[in-house]
């Protein structure tokens, strides 16, 4: 029996609807229904009475609700207790982690509280570009750390896996989205086209991998109004918040960010995707600390961002 199935069951019981529960969990209704049906087969009972579009808990379902909550709470308590033991047994100097700017200034800020719970922020972060990281990874003698967190555009994944001597461990996949206020974006639109965005005033971050991704996306529709292209994030945010420009974000950052009610993050038709993961050199990880850190980081992402991962699966990204 999977804890995830119990979580799905509780959400259906709470909302009284498979379709609403699926939307709340960011999973497909078909996948959620299948998980609940599997749970019913495993338990040998019906948990819901289905009456057309309406459902209600059976007696067995009502009895399962508090038991399911207890199971989920017990699992969290177990993981937290074991995590504390693991952290005490692995007490050492902070690990040196190479990271691209997105990870160093973005991910470690967006997930600050969650990463601290998992003991993952106690690292020495050193920013490097993707070419620098891959250059170092290709020659063991140049490695200054056993792991690097990288952002890899989809079109580079195959090349990365074919030519890299180190392993690649993907964490999650993300899509480029457009962000701005209602002054320039309409919440009624399901998605914006590339040519629509190309005509808007744009302020965006100056970072080599983002440049590559946007260059591929907009090669047929070059930007017409770039009013800021810099590494000054505070000024870019100021332009966006004032309604003078739109900018680019990604679906994972939008999922993790607190919605202030003013900024919209909307999909782009034909948007490029990228994967965030670790480039990892097993031969240099003599005490196993780096692999332990990567495994804990993966568990953190899977537990904290389960609904997001279900909606954006790591298809095409090899797991190590």
Show the helix and strand layout.
Blueprint: H1 3-15, H2 18-25, H3 29-43, E1 48-51, E2 54-57, H4 59-89, E3 95-99, H5 101-110, H6 112-117, E4 123-127, H7 130-137, E5 147-153, H8 154-163, E6 167-180, H9 194-198, E7 201-205, H10 208-217, E8 225-230, H11 233-241, E9 247-250, H12 251-256, E10 264-267, E11 273-280, H13 289-304, H14 306-311
Parallel strand pairs: 3-4, 3-5, 7-8
Antiparallel strand pairs: 1-2, 5-11, 6-9, 6-10, 6-11
Helix pairs in contact: 1-2, 1-3, 1-4
State the gist of this model.
This protein is an alpha/beta fold and 320 residues long. It has helices spanning 3-15, 18-25, 29-43, 59-89, 101-110, 112-117, 130-137, 154-163, 194-198, 208-217, 233-241, 251-256, 289-304, 306-311, and strands at 48-51, 54-57, 95-99, 123-127, 147-153, 167-180, 201-205, 225-230, 247-250, 264-267, 273-280.
How does this structure look, described?
This protein is an alpha/beta fold and 320 residues long. Helix content is 48%, strand content 21%. It has 14 helices and eleven strands. Strands 3, 4, 5, 6, 9, 10 and 11 form a seven-stranded mixed β-sheet that branches. A two-stranded antiparallel sheet has the order 1-2. The chain is globular. The model has no long low-confidence stretch (mean pLDDT 85).
Count all strands and give the number.
Answer: 11
Uncertain stretches of 5 or more adjacent residues:
none
Cα-based radius of gyration, to the nearest Å: 22 Å
How would you describe the shape? Answer: globular
Provide the descriptors you would attach to this structure in a database record:
D-Maltodextrin-Binding Protein, domain 2; 320 residues; alpha/beta; seven-stranded mixed beta sheet; Arc Repressor Mutant, subunit A
């Amino acid at each position: 029996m999977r804890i995830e199935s119990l979580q799905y069951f509780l959400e259906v019981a709470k909302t009284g609807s498979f379709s609403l529960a699926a939307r709340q969990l960011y999973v497909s209704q078909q996948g959620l229904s299948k998980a609940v049906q599997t749970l019913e087969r495993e338990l040998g009972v019906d948990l819901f009475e289905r009456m057309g579009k309406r459902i209600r808990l059976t007696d067995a379902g009502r009895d399962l609700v508090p038991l399911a909550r207890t199971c989920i709470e017990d699992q969290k308590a177990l993981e937290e207790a074991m995590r504390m033991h693991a952290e005490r047994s692995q007490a050492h100097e902070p690990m040196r982690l190479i990271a691209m700017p997105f990870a160093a200034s973005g991910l470690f800020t967006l997930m600050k509280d969650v990463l601290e719970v998992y003991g993952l922020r106690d690292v020495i972060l050193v920013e490097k570009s993707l070419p620098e990281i891959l250059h170092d990874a290709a020659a063991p003698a140049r490695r200054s750390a056993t792991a690097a967190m990288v952002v890899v555009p989809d079109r580079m994944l195959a090349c990365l896996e074919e030519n890299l001597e180190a392993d690649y461990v993907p964490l999650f996949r993300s899509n480029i989205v457009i962000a701005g206020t209602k002054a320039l974006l309409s919440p009624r639109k399901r998605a914006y086209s590339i040519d629509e965005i190309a005509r808007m005033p744009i302020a965006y971050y100056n970072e080599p991998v983002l440049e590559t991704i946007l260059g591929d996306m907009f090669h047929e529709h070059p930007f017409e109004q770039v009013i800021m292209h810099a590494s000054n994030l505070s000024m870019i945010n100021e332009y966006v918040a004032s309604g003078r420009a739109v900018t680019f974000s990604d679906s994972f950052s939008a999922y993790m960010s607190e919605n202030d009610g003013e900024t919209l993050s909307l999909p782009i038709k034909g948007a490029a995707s990228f994967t965030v993961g670790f480039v990892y050199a097993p031969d240099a990880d003599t005490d196993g600390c780096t692999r332990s850190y990567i495994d804990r980081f993966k568990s953190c992402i899977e537990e904290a961002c389960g609904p997001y991962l279900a909606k954006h699966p790591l298809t095409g990204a090899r797991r190590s």
